[in-house]
Fold:
Amino acid sequence: MYMRDWIAKLDDFLRLSEREILTHAGRVSHELAAATAEAEFEKFQATQLAQPSEVEKQFEAMVAMVKQLPPKKPTGRKRGKTS
Structure:
């Protein structure tokens, strides 16, 4: 398959889904597109940083599990030097 074949397939798919086929360079400048993408990424990054990481979630789950364990009973043995 050649690139022109892929272009024709994509155009057919867009027509089938009733989408407009872009036949020109567009109306958005590269600078505006890059600025918009950067602004959206900063919003995304802020939401990601506000959420706990997977490690933090697992740590909190382990802390909760340890808090539910019954207290350890003393064995009566003293720890220290063994002779």
Remarks:
- The two ends are 82 Å apart (CA to CA).
- The mean pLDDT is 89.
- Residues 23 and 76 are 85 Å apart (CA to CA).
- Helices lie at 3-16, 30-50, 54-68.
